[in-house]
Structure prediction request, 164 residues.
Amino acid sequence: MENLKLEHLAPYLPYGLKFIMTSDYTDEFCFEDWDGKEEDYKNGAIWQYAGEIDNDLYIPLSISEGEIGRVFRKESTWISINNKGIKPILRPLSDLTKEIEVNGELLIPTSYLLESTGFEIIDYKDSIDDISELPYNIISKLCEWHFDIFSLLEKKLAIDINTL
Prediction:
């Protein structure tokens, strides 16, 4: 089974990608470490992805020697969790032809992209076999809108936003 890698997440980093806990982490963190509520560490809690870290940097997060951790934040709280028990929340490509909400505005991605760039993306609504076929500005928009451009939903490495 494939693991979630930095190369899958990096394109989303500037756009506030959110993750959902799929395991209960209340036992992993000491109560005095918590800056928030206990439910923030339980199955179903949503955190924003903030990047990757290793123990070469002096940042007091819970990672072991030689381990790389994913860093997440919720308000003023920062945590580091490995690959298990947390998944990104993404839109399936089938949502390209549906009305979605982006920054409080409703839009249909295919229509928006056609009007703003002249590029017709309707051929890609089921899968993107070769992402290099798409212009950079289209890939950026798809990442900004949290579309699953790496088939992570199909691989069970992400959660479909429509199921929440």
Notes: Residues 58-63 have pLDDT under 50 and may be disordered. The CA atoms of residues 54 and 147 lie 28 Å apart. The radius of gyration is 17 Å.
